[in-house]
Amino acid sequence: MEKEPYWHSVTLDRDTCKGCTNCLKQCPTQAIRIQNGKAKILKERCIDCGECIRVCPYHAKKAVTDGFERLEEYQYTVALVAPAFYGQFSRTEDCNLILTSLLQLGFDDVYEVARGAQEISAATREFLKSGELMKPAISSACPAVSRLIAVRFPNLINHIIPLRSPMELSAEAARKEAVEKTGLLPEEIGLFFISPCAAKATAVKDGLTVKKSEVDGVISIKDVYLRLAQKIGNIKEVKHLSCAGSLGALWATSGGEANATRAERRISVDGIHNVIKVLEDIEDDKLIDIDYVEALACPGGCVGGPLAAENNFVARSRIKRMSKSLPEEQGSIPDSIRRTWDEAPVYRPILKLNDDLGTAMQMAMKIEEILEHFPGLDCGSCGSPSCRALAEDIVRGYAQETDCIFVMRERLRELLRHVSENNIQLPPEVLKGWKRPSDRKEKPQKSEVQNHENKGNS
């Protein structure tokens, strides 16, 4: 059964948008159009990867996350700390100092998502040993990549490892620990994920593989960083709060997750456009000698998320240095907490032209017919990301052929030629700056001008 378009974290501020086409060209699922000088996000195509947030020079694309005022809704609150958070602060390589600082913001406790990450790594190793997975097996940790597969690569859904995200696993474990510690009811405890990416916020509101998220809210790393940057160096008493090992902490960087699986034939790919190339190769059976693929939408891994505060190269270096002081694994999660999905991802046929096969074939033929009239430059000036996308938009009724500036220019030439040949009188303001073909004189070549001057001199 087809799912309805889901809730999105990525949004557009139309007042700030200048219609510059940067986002149009970079969107991996062609989910953006430029109409009437403003960007428009096609919600059914968007996977909340945050690429448009990253490339927009006017900051018109934003991620909807929760504010700190939501902590007041609960009697006891826990910060679920993404491993990427460790790399955000300069001259701070003690993860206990970073975790302690979060208590200064109003959280009652902290829980490292790195603990969930190392548990998922262990579960992945078991899956790879079992031989039950289609090869190459694709990590399920990045929600943007999972959405991308559900939208654009449905044949690869069975390649995704059916494991919950570290965030969801950690949230369930954190709630259980908080209930035991406080005696409160589960619903009186608020769990807030400190996130480097918009896709996590979407996964909480409308999960692809969970029926109901264990997370109560998502706060961006940037928002936390702005509150903590000046305070973190003034903390007098550092509490020992860290329970995670280096295997989980290194999930924040590209390659960390893959290394934790210990699979011999593994690859790591980061950046959504690089991920697409790898997924295309998997579809074409070019990676049959690979057992495991770590695919992350953000450059450099989660440290490169659009909601992170620090440069991803710097953050990655800090986390790698910090991890050297940690044991490889610690802080296990009880086996009673389930590791696998609630449900499998569902194919979202956003590229389907029509439910009726005959009508869809007619529309496809019309697209090819229209496409022949376009230059194939994929310039984006029409407001669609490519000539083929414009042809499809025309067939769907979203656009018209004259949106292409090359088609428009040719139509204008034909019109003016018709006017000239039939001596049709047009208003002066239309003809201003335009001459009839018979009135035009070719500009003399430079050599002709020089010859004329030479004759005059002689």
UniProtKB/TrEMBL annotation:
Q: Key word Metal-binding present in the record?
A: yes
Region (Disordered) residue spans: 429-458
> Mind telling me what this protein is named?
4Fe-4S dicluster domain-containing protein
From the UniProt record, which GO molecular function terms apply? 4 iron, 4 sulfur cluster binding; metal ion binding
The keyword Calcium is annotated on this UniProt entry: no
Start and end residues of each 4Fe-4S domain: 362-421
Q: Which residues form the 4Fe-4S ferredoxin-type domain?
A: 8-37, 38-66
What Gene3D superfamilies does the annotation carry?
3.30.70.20, Electron transport complex subunit B, putative Fe-S cluster, Fe-only Hydrogenase (Larger Subunit), Chain L, domain 3
Keywords noted in UniProt: 4Fe-4S, Iron, Iron-sulfur, Metal-binding
